């Protein structure tokens, strides 16, 4: 055992391994207050919630409080490892400013209330609106951080009870494109691949995926392969010099907004060199000829011009993909939150389809998730889709659901696609939505064009309910605030990106009067007297396990089949990958190993959309072209981005995250080690641009777009020239402004620090995911620095191009334990 | 010689040009509805390209128009101008989409006519252009319909005084 500062060394110690070998175990743990393992009263099984990797861990409990965490050695996902956010982030549970009682707005102020008063207000306003204006006046906005049981309950309440089409999750911001791209190519959501593909791959291609910061343990797995014999070669597509770019054989840094053109050029090369598995393509796909025609006029030279990437580098990247024998691809926000998101992500699927590289060890696609429980938001229908990957345009699927819930099929809205979040906000802006119930998310910091978002949420006529664990920026605008229990304080299951289901058990009681989200939702359903068509209660369960059993019935026979799983089966063991049913009682490592895809018209989750216009494909057209179990190769033409730089706004603004924070910092900003590592907003500019303007490290810059301005200290980083980067984590809850700009970090008080003051209201037509990567921005220097560097980590993509005299590191309170395979110290 | 085909090409050129102009006008009017706004701009580019391609392809058939410039001149008053601010914005949105849909339907049909003629004349070049352009025109048609279907329920079931 050894102690290691995991702030300074986020990925810990290498345990090298070779292709086809088992990833060695390394158990990471962190206990607070000088405790050691003998002091712990009990360990409670759970998994990680401050990213999407789904690492299994045990929660240490001492005297009724959480005292630390330890990775679960036997789990298939992490083999004992944890990331910095997991090791330190749990401390936020103990923050003195946790919400412990409901608040209601009286005379303009939020004042404490008892649960009855608060819930009567919430249910009462819902009922009033349903009577006066109908279900179209009621909307719900949830998260990617609750548990499966809570999402399914919410989906039943919204779809089966209230009958509104206005339900979405903040997965719209992070994984809507992942889900949509899987649906478009394979007929249904569900990752084909497995994390174990890292163990076998000879080429790993990462598209807009800075895995080193977003899923640290998955990157640790890749680093261990890179340190071992016969390492994989990496392709990195990213405008920043990320740790992934450092390790890559080929790094492409395209002009933001041009991913689709780049993908079309890579496919052009693959087709031109005939790196195509024609036999597999003819047996298992449709649409190859369309793709060939589409990419014919996209040679590397054309893409080089559009993307501003050397044609030779594009050829080298294509050669890497074309020569791979076991290709693993991963995709994240650099594609999902950028222009033509779904079209570009689908082309990554197409690389695998034309190369016939799916369903075998090392041959996988991971359309990544951004949040720990995003997969459940999608499969349970809390993102507005019908539960169980059912197809809203297929009447038989709606009838099936209506039977299960014992309601009239007409009560389940299916006249059109579910209303996406940004459209829900638009309806609220226009006044047709009058009630918005927000659970576990903070749109007043995380949505684009914040001045507008604040204006919409603050409207008198909108009844805003916020259910959260802290008084977030959004909660400060609410009419009713409901204090929720969080991870470690409630029981439920959740599923990571490679379909691994984990059980997270309650370890301690929530503080004060805070209640599990599930209990609050059940209370809401009871007060609304939601009933089935025989007058019996619509929601028949009363606890988490009951909700899970109901979900199992809903998922049975669908691609995300949980029917063979139980709490008992998950308890004490490693996570299990769905589908789990009679045919696959131990779970399923890879989908589509047989080359059969869920594209049958009677079974598929969607009939698809036009990748460029977003228009749904008509059911009759899909049925006529019946793909009968083949995957769909869908090409798309490039369209220029919507807000190109101009003389007044010569830079392209892109936003993103840092390793040390999650979302709007509601938890990580309250964990001292993480907060110290990345204490405040910064802005990244390239060395070329800094020299051209005479800017230095630490200077205060103002970044302005059509929507607003932000001030931040300059970090001169390895970012592509012409591009500026802002981390999106920093809002206002810990500034004098409270929920909006006002004094914090600002020369004159008028400028913000939240990156989303600047981002445009625009979204991908197919996935409806808002775009955060292509805004035209002006940059000016407001004040010279005092010689101290920007408050940006030096360990990650934000590291300076030149030594700035300081290094990101922790203190004695950051020392975590590592137990290596040989039992020795590092 | 091909007087009728020349006329058909001229009509099509006019219709594509007017569709592009109509898309840009609708984009202007609905700046707060980004999906409609940006979609209009993206799809106007297709129509502009079709019109440009027609100029080249139509030359052999006596189509004597210059390359498209200054879109908007030909766009009629179907849902134009002064009335726009006065009417219910929800209904205006539906009316604009219906107008785009009708225009796109006309363009699709026009391309059918040209494709049939090209086939009969064994003009591979014109046929390829007609088929490619028709495919995109059909996608424009599907797009306006999809937006109608996505918004009609909310607009129809909300009282008009909600307009902001």
TrEMBL record, chain A:
Keywords, alphabetical: 4Fe-4S, Iron, Iron-sulfur, Metal-binding, Molybdenum, Nitrate assimilation, Oxidoreductase
Residues covered by the 4Fe-4S Mo/W bis-MGD-type domain: 41-97
Source organism per UniProt: Jiangella mangrovi
Family assignment from sequence similarity: Belongs to the prokaryotic molybdopterin-containing oxidoreductase family. NasA/NapA/NarB subfamily.
Protein name: Anaerobic selenocysteine-containing dehydrogenase
SUPFAM superfamilies attached to this UniProt entry: ADC-like, Formate dehydrogenase/DMSO reductase, domains 1-3
MF GO annotations: 4 iron, 4 sulfur cluster binding; metal ion binding; molybdopterin cofactor binding; oxidoreductase activity
Basic and acidic residues biased stretches: 800-815
Gene3D superfamilies associated with the record: 2.40.40.20, 3.40.50.740, ADC-like domains (2.20.25.90), Dimethylsulfoxide Reductase, domain 2 (3.40.228.10)
Cofactor: [4Fe-4S] cluster; Mo-bis(molybdopterin guanine dinucleotide)
Chain residue ranges for the region called Disordered: 1-20, 743-766, 783-826
Family matches, as Pfam families: Molybdopterin, Molydop_binding
Lineage of origin: Bacteria, Bacillati, Actinomycetota, Actinomycetes, Jiangellales
UniProt xrefs under InterPro entries: Asp_de-COase-like_dom_sf, CT_Nitrate-R-NapA-like, MoPterin_dinucl-bd_dom, Mopterin_OxRdtase, Mopterin_OxRdtase_4Fe-4S_dom, Mopterin_OxRdtase_prok_CS, Prok_molybdopt-oxidoreductase
An example Gene Ontology biological process: nitrate assimilation
PROSITE patterns found in the cross-reference section: 4FE4S_MOW_BIS_MGD, MOLYBDOPTERIN_PROK_2
UniProtKB/TrEMBL annotation, chain B:
Record's protein name: DUF892 family protein
Lineage: superkingdom: Bacteria
Organism: Jiangella mangrovi
InterPro entries xrefs: Ferritin-like
């Amino acid at each position: 055992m050894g102690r290691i500062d995991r702030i300074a060394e986020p990925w810990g110690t290498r345990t090298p391994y070779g292709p086809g070998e088992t990833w060695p175990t390394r158990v990471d743990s962190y206990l607070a207050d000088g405790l050691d393992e003998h002091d712990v009263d009990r360990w409670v099984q759970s998994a990680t919630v401050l990213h999407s990797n789904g690492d299994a861990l045990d929660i240490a409990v001492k005297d009724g409080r959480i005292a630390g965490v330890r990775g679960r050695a036997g789990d298939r996902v992490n083999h004992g490892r944890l990331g910095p956010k997991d090791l330190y982030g749990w401390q936020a549970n103990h923050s003195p400013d946790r919400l412990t009682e409901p608040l209601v707005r009286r005379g303009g102020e939020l004042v404490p209330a008892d649960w009855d008063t608060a819930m009567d207000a919430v249910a009462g306003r819902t009922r009033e609106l349903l009577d006066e204006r109908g279900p179209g006046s009621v909307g719900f906005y949830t998260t990617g951080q609750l548990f499966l049981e809570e999402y399914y309950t919410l989906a039943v309440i919204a779809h089966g009870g209230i009958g509104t089409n206005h339900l979405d999750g903040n997965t719209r911001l992070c994984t809507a494109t992942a889900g949509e791209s899987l649906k478009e190519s394979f007929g249904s959501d569900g990752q084909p691949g497995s994390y174990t593909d890292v163990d076998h791959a000879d080429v790993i291609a990462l598209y807009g995926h800075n895995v080193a910061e977003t899923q640290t343990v998955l990157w640790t797995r890749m680093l261990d392969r890179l340190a071992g014999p016969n390492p994989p070669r990496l392709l990195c597509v990213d405008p920043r010099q990320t740790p992934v770019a450092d390790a890559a054989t080929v790094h492409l840094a395209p002009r933001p907004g041009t991913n689709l053109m780049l993908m079309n050029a890579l496919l052009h090369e693959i087709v031109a060199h005939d790196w195509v598995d024609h036999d597999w393509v003819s047996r298992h796909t449709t649409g190859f000829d369309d793709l060939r025609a589409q990419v014919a006029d996209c040679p590397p030279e054309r893409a080089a011009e559009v993307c501003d990437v050397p044609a030779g580098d594009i050829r080298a990247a294509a050669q890497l993909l074309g020569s791979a024998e076991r290709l693993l691809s991963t995709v994240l926000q650099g594609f999902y939150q950028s222009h033509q998101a779904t079209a570009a992500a689908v082309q990554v699927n197409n690389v695998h389809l034309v190369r016939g590289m799916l369903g075998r060890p090392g041959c996988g696609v991971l359309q990544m998730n951004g949040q720990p429980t995003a997969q459940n938001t999608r499969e349970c229908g809390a993102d507005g889709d019908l539960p169980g990957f059912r197809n809203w345009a297929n009447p038989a699927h709606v009838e099936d659901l209506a039977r299960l819930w014992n309601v009239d099929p007409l009560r389940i809205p299916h006249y059109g696609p579910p209303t996406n979040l940004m459209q829900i906000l638009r309806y609220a802006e226009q006044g047709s939505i009058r009630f918005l119930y927000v659970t576990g998310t903070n749109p007043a910091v995380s949505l684009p064009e914040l001045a507008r978002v604040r204006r919409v949420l603050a409207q008198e006529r909108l009844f805003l309910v916020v259910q959260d664990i802290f008084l977030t920026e959004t909660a400060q605008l609410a009419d009713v605030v409901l204090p929720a229990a969080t991870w470690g304080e409630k029981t439920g299951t959740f599923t990571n990106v490679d379909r691994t289901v984990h059980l997270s058990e309650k370890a301690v009681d929530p503080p004060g009067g805070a209640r599990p989200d599930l209990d609050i939702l059940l209370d809401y359903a009871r007060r609304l007297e939601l009933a089935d068509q025989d007058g019996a209660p619509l929601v028949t369960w009363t606890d988490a396990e009951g909700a899970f059993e109901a979900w199992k019935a809903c998922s049975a026979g669908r691609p995300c089949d949980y029917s063979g799983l139980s709490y008992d089966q998950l308890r004490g063991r490693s996570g299990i990958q769905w589908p789990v049913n009679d045919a696959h009682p131990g779970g399923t490592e890879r989908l589509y190993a047989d080359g059969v895809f869920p594209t049958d018209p009677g079974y598929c989750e969607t009939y698809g959309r036009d990748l460029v216009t977003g228009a749904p494909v008509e059911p009759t057209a899909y049925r006529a072209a019946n793909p009968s179990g083949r995957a769909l190769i869908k090409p798309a033409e490039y369209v220029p981005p919507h807000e190109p730089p101009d003389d007044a706004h010569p830079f392209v603004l892109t936003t993103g995250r840092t390793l040390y924070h999650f979302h709007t910092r509601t938890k990580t900003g309250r964990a001292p080690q993480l907060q110290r590592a990345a204490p405040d907003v910064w802005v990244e500019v390239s060395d070329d641009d800094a020299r051209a303007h005479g800017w230095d490290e630490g200077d205060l810059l103002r970044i302005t777009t059509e929507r607003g301005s932000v001030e931040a200290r300059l970090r001169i980083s390895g970012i592509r020239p012409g591009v500026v980067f802002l981390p999106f984590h920093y809002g206002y809850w810990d500034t004098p402004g409270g929920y909006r700009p006002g004094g914090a970090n600002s020369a004159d008080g008028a400028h913000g620090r939240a990156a989303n003051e600047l981002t445009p209201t625009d979204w991908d037509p197919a996935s409806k995911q808002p775009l955060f990567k292509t805004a035209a921005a002006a940059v000016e220097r407001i004040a010279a620095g005092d010689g101290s560097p920007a408050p940006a980590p030096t360990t990650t993509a934000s590291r300076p191009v030149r030594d700035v005299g300081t290094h990101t590191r922790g203190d004695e309170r950051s020392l975590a334990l590592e137990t290596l395979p040989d039992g020795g110290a590092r | 010689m091909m007087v009728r085909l020349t006329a058909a090409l001229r009509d099509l050129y006019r219709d594509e040009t007017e569709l592009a102009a109509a898309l840009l006008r609708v984009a202007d009017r609905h700046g707060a509805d980004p999906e409609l706004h940006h979609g209009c701009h993206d799809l106007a580019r297709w129509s502009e390209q079709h019109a440009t391609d027609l100029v080249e392809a139509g030359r052999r058939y006596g189509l004597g128009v210059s390359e498209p410039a200054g879109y908007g001149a030909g766009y009629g008053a179907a849902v134009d101008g002064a009335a726009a601010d006065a009417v219910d914005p929800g209904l205006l949105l539906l009316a604009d989409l219906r107008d785009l849909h009708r225009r796109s339907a006309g363009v699709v049909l026009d391309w059918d006519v040209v494709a049939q003629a090209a086939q009969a004349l064994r003009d591979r070049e014109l046929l390829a252009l007609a088929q490619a352009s028709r495919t995109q025109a059909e996608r424009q048609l599907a797009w306006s319909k999809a937006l109608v279907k996505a918004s009609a329920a909310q607009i129809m079931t909300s009282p008009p005084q909600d307009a902001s």
